[in-house]
Amino acid sequence: MDSLETRLRALVLLSLEGDRAAYRQLLGELTHYLRIYFARRLAPAHAANVEDLVQETLLAVHAKRLTYDTARPFTAWLHALAHHKLVDHLRRHAIRPTVPLDDEMTGGVPAGDLAAHDLDRVLETLPERTSTLIRRVKVEGASVAEAASAHGMSEGAAKIAIHRGLKALMARFAGDR
């Protein structure tokens, strides 16, 4: 990963100085990297959308390249952009049917589907970054370091955000226990 960071960082710094060849090379390497990034994160049903997400992310890199803080790792900045594009995609394509919850209707619905829906509703009560961090670490099994990197924040800050988010959920939903 360090060689990737070093290579991409060198290319982005050259491109920010106006080196067109470095910019073309950067976009080529990002295309390959982002294809893998999105393919690993999308369900097979959404695999056809990988190229669209790659293109949207490359457009975001182009549009926001001047906001990149050269004192920070480039891959963390890139992951934050890619993550936001992925979240936007998942929200646009999410199908959330509403079904009355009487006993006759829930009999055929798998408990996992109901639990996933409940989890989504509960996490929606938190700020977006906190809910995304909790989902990545506690549900999807990502490390705190990976989740923090995707949001361009330190591991300690991510741990604190997760802890506070879980504490807020406990306070909100624990009742009189």
From TrEMBL:
Sequence ranges assigned to domain RNA polymerase sigma-70 region in this UniProt record: 35-94
Record keywords, A-Z: DNA-binding, Sigma factor, Transcription, Transcription regulation
Domain of life: Bacteria
InterPro entries on file: RNA_pol_sigma-70-like (IPR039425), RNA_pol_sigma-70_dom (IPR014284), RNA_pol_sigma70_r2 (IPR007627), RNA_pol_sigma70_r4_t2 (IPR013249), RNA_pol_sigma_r2 (IPR013325), RNA_pol_sigma_r3/r4-like (IPR013324), WH-like_DNA-bd_sf (IPR036388)
GO molecular function terms listed in the Swiss-Prot or TrEMBL record: DNA binding; sigma factor activity
Protein's GO biological process: DNA-templated transcription initiation
Keyword Lipid biosynthesis: no
Keyword S-adenosyl-L-methionine recorded: no
Domain RNA polymerase sigma factor 70 region 4 type: 118-169
Family, per entry: Belongs to the sigma-70 factor family. ECF subfamily.
Record PANTHER family: ECF RNA POLYMERASE SIGMA FACTOR SIGD, RNA POLYMERASE ECF-TYPE SIGMA FACTO
Protein name according to UniProt: RNA polymerase sigma-70 factor, ECF subfamily
Species of the source: Pelagibacterium halotolerans (strain DSM 22347 / JCM 15775 / CGMCC 1.7692 / B2)
UniProt lineage: Bacteria, Pseudomonadati, Pseudomonadota, Alphaproteobacteria, Hyphomicrobiales
